[in-house]
Amino acid sequence: MEVVVVSSPLAVEECFTKNDITFANRPKLLAGKILNYDYTAVGFSPYGEHWRNLRRLISLELVSANRLTMFTNIRQEEVWLLLKQLFQNSRGEFVPVNLKSKLADVSFNIMTRMIAGKRYFGKDAADEEARQFRDIMSEIVEVHGNSNLGDYLPVFQWLDIQGVAKRMVKLRKKMDEFFQLLIDEHRKTNRNESNISLDEPSGSNKERKKTLIDVLISLQETEPALHSDDTIKGLVLALVVAGTETSATTMEWAMALLLNHPEAMSKAVAEIDAHVGQDRLLDEQDLPKLTYLQNIINETLRLFPPVPLLVPHESSDDCTLCGFDIPRGTMLLVNLWTIHRDPELWVDAAKFVPERFETGEGEGYKLIPFGAGRRVCPGVNLGRRVMALALGALIQTFEWERVGKEEIDLTEGIGLSMPKAKPLQALCRPRPATTKLLSKV
Ligand code: HEM
């Protein structure tokens, strides 16, 4: 397979405007072939029209305005739980916090509660089911994080010298059984509870919740072909793979950058104090007013995009790109990392300057951390909400400091979504002005 790497905004624009239909496919990479093998509707699937069904389901059933509202309290509760834990640990003093794992817990628990009404991460998620899910997730991250040579050099496909294919086959079986049990459990509970309202907001962890799986099972009755168990499993897989690590790593990078730039942190705190105050916790309705906070997130996504080459695309037909002939079946990689740091496109490209977005510096195809065109990330609104809510709440209520005097090391590591090489540790203590507020959470 030929591979084309694009690293200029003009070429990106041509890919996702003139050639958007041609590049709407995904190549048959090993991860997609094996992990999604049985799931004919899976989003990452290159096959036929199936990805359209997955995107339709995500748009309508998870990230539509209605559904985002329905799941608001899950996002809010998970953020509050994090604040509560930090508050209890700190007892008013600066204490070290492993931010990487805390932010990952929030991100994963929000997603698994929306999907299945379950919390699988954190100290209180200690049962066997939670352990199994965490094992599956860490294995997915590991096998996806390491490139598979066979995807790029066909001779290695036969040899499987990295043993990736064997591991994936095993992992698929484990995952399939886990997700099937989850669906069966929901189906059984739904039968026993004849009158659950699907639009009723979800409650706390102890209550019966209306989850994405409930919604899909009910749709299965009316349109079985579009909502088979395989479709549901494929959707769950796509969401936990695509929608958790991405947000968690971005929040971790954002906190690392803020710790290295205390002036930006102070500005963000001042903005929150001005628009929200110190007598209540910020909520999602405050987010549109917090433009500096949004700029911090954009600047983080510019410097550390969690999907730095986008998910690979494939041409379904011959086409031309910037005057070059591109044959059908070519893999397209978009090098966002290079575009986002190109000194020809950005002033002080390597520096963390959230203010640059106040003057419209990121317009056009220069900043595309969520991709573009018809395969653009469908979770952009959800991801942005979760990140802004969690970061805003952490900044509003705690003072943050580096563990040592030296700057936080910003070296990138290897993983599913460009993680920090060294997990972020920081010191935090409640802000005097918000201690009373925290004690009520
Ligand atoms: C910081 C947060 C996130 C970032 C930076 C991000 C980024 C991306 C990127 C770059 C792509 C590939 C686009 C392309 O190939 O053109 C993508 C695809 C995808 N994202 Fe996200 N994403 C984030 C959060 C989420 C969330 C919260 C969800 C959950 C709904 C999600 C679900 C997906 C899915 C299902 C796809 C595959 C779409 C397809 O193949 O048609 N993402 N994301």
UniProtKB/TrEMBL annotation:
The keyword Iron applies. Heme binds at residue 377. Keywords: Heme, Iron, Metal-binding, Monooxygenase, Oxidoreductase. GO terms for molecular function: heme binding; iron ion binding; monooxygenase activity; oxidoreductase activity, acting on paired donors, with incorporation or reduction of molecular oxygen. The keyword Oxidoreductase applies. Its cofactor is heme. PANTHER family: CYTOCHROME P450 82C3-RELATED, CYTOCHROME P450 FAMILY PROTEIN. Belongs to the cytochrome P450 family. This is Cytochrome P450, family 81, subfamily D, polypeptide 5. It comes from Actinidia rufa.
